[in-house]
Amino acid sequence: MSRNLATIIGQVSQATRRMPMAEWNWSEGVALYGLVSLWKATKDDSLQLYLKTWIDDQLERGHVFETVNATAPCFSLIELYVASGEARYADIIKSRTDFLLRRAERLANGAFEHTLVETNFGGQMWVDTLFMAGLFLVKAGLLFNDREAVDEGLNQYFLHVRHLQQENGLYYHGWDERKNGPIGCLWARGNAWAAIVSAELLVLLPETEPRRNAIKDSLDRQLAGLSRYQDVSGLWTTVIDDPKTYLETSAAAGIAYAVKQALRYGNVEEAYVEMANRAARAALSHVDWEGVFRGVSAGTGVQKHAGEYHVIAQHRAEGYGQGLLLMLLSAMLEESGRAPENQRQ
């Protein structure tokens, strides 16, 4: 028996809200980003209530960690503030912006050092940071007319592009200033983070922003590279250019979302429609009947070689996997029921 889009969305949404999202951290933040995407697409009040309850509980407990990776839940604060106007949400958004601008660890070149709640990685930038912190700065800066935050978010974007994006358009997982070179591999989910940020920035930034064309060029080069490595299944291997590594699902969800978002706003060529649709179909085929997204690789630090990426577990339910899938499902819902934004009168 097959499921329609509405059924899958309901199952995935419920499965995500049943997860034990215990702390203010990156995985929870991506799950919330997905729920926010669905809330904005459906106007479902129960989603807003869930988000507010989770945020308020965390704030009451005082567990708002100041690290780059743990900035991810702040995306939900932005949306709750826009919906409610509650001043305390604005205060926390501004505090996180101040942390990133003034106190976050940086490399000598100014890029954010990738820091987690549990540890930091001296002198390393990771592609993950583009999503976890750089995109937040742009969103928060635009919301509060803080040009310094917008400029720094874009500065982080271009620093990461300059050091991590390769000639074939794909991104390395990390860069180490001590080695003065890239580290890790062409990690699939990392490429999803990068593609999502490019697509989201192109939606957020006004047409008058002089750096939009450079962002579009970066995204186009990346998608051209991804198209060359997409497996017949519609997925990508967890190390994109190593077919001996396993096929991974969260990257496909993230990449499909990025392409659909870019297509919706006219920011990418129609040539990538089929790539996105194949990735979306492949991702949805890995959703079980409880709404859990399967085949998602576990949290992945920078590894030394492809073999180390290949042994990362891929059997657990992961909050960030659910979030990436919800983002894709929200884009598909918008696609099925509304005209492209650039075609509206």
From TrEMBL:
It holds the Pfam family Glyco_hydro_88. The keyword Hydrolase applies. It comes from the Bacteria. One of its GO terms (molecular function) is hydrolase activity. PANTHER family: UNSATURATED RHAMNOGALACTURONAN HYDROLASE (EUROFUNG). It comes from Paenibacillus plantarum. This is Glycoside hydrolase 105 family protein. SUPFAM superfamilies: Six-hairpin glycosidases. InterPro entries: 6-hairpin_glycosidase_sf, 6hp_glycosidase-like_sf, Glyco_hydro_88, PolySaccharide_Degr_Enz. Keywords: Hydrolase.
